[in-house]
Structures are given as C-alpha cells and as structure tokens.
Amino acid sequence: MLNRMRVMKNVLLRSERARGLLLALLAVALGGCNLAALPFLLWADEPTRKVAAEYPYLGEKRTCIVVWAEMDTLFEYRDVQWELSEFVAAELESKVPGTTVVPCREVVDYQRRTLDWDRQDPAELGKRFGAERLLLIELTQYGTREPDSPHLYRGHVGANLRVYDTAYPKSEPAYRGSVDTVYPPDSVGLWSSDDRGIRRAMMQAFAVDVANKFYDRLVKVR
After folding, report:
1. What pTM did the predictor assign?
2. Percent of the chain with pLDDT over 90
3. Which CATH number fits the domain 62-220, given the four candidates 3.30.720.120, 3.40.50.10610, 3.40.190.10, 3.40.800.20?
4. Which of these, 87, 96, 97, lies nearest to 137 by C-alpha position?
5. Of 77, 84, 138, 148, which has the most beta carbons under 10 Å away?
C-alpha cells in the first residue's frame, strides 16, 4: 500500500510539473500582459465553420436507398447492397433531422426478385415503397485492397449519387453528386487488420461522407 501511494504521489508531481512547464512556456510566448488569456487558450473550443448541405431536402422525408453495383462486385460481396444501404440509412437518420428510411432489407429483396429493377423509373421505384425521395448509390469502386499491392489492406468506395423526387416520375434527378472514400485515409491498414474489419470501417466512413451531402454541419477549421 505504501509503495502504491508513493507511485501515485510521483505521478501527480510529474503531471503538476508538466502543467507548470506548459504554463511557463505560454507565458513567455504571450508576454506577461496576456496571462489572463491562458485559461481561454487552454480550454476554449476549437474554431469551426459552417458547411451548407449540397441537397437539404431529405429532412422530414421518407427516403428509399437503392444501391447499384457491377456483377463482379456482387459476386465477391454478395450482401454489399444491403450492408452499404444499412450504414447509409443509420447515418442519415441520425444526422438529417426528421429523415426516415425505407427498411433496406425490403428494397434489396425486391432487387433480387426483380432482375430488371434498374431499368425502372427511379421515381416510380421509390413510390412503390411509399418513399418521397429515392437515393440511388451507383458504385464505381468497392474493395479492401490497394490496387497495386493486393497484400495491403485499404478500403476504397467510389459512388455516384442521385436523388429523385418520387412526386415527379420520368424526371431528371433533383440532385447529383459523387463520393470517393478511402479508409484508412492517410495510410494502409495495420498488419493486424483483416478484410472484415477494414470493410466495416470503410462502409462507415463512406456513410458519413454520403450523409454530409444532406445536412448543414460544423467542421473544425484547420
């Protein structure tokens, strides 16, 4: 017990010294007349800026998410349409006020039963599920390995986005956009990474990038 108390005392002393050194360095940098600003500098929130939604009209709407993928992608990742739409649905419902999403399993089951679903009018397809908007995610890239180094894990998801207003059949999309997500963003995955873990984190990052298109948000100023 006595040894443990001595260790805790030493830890506290070191932390106090580190805090004191930090304050001293800031004092030198700012000059004595600015010491009153120290608490603000140490504990103030980071500055942010507002980023406006590219398409702010999913709020308070029932939305149908439809994922299109190449046959090669569907062969390798059989559940990609369901998995990806579930991630996007969760992010939309948590970030875009009032948005509700058609159950993704219902949509994917319909896609599997109906081979020509992608030749149907998107607005009519959305209306079939009682949706007011249809979000079409057209995958252009999906994988968990570096193209030039297949032994290294790194997730890549690219997609074109289109939103249709189901009140206007046979009309042009109300919104067009694109997303290109890489995970991890700055380097390849750790040696302990596996395909399942990278793919899950990649889809979560992609869902965040998609949802960011549809609501006003604050981002940190770097």
Report:
1. 0.76
2. 60
3. 3.40.50.10610
4. 87
5. 84
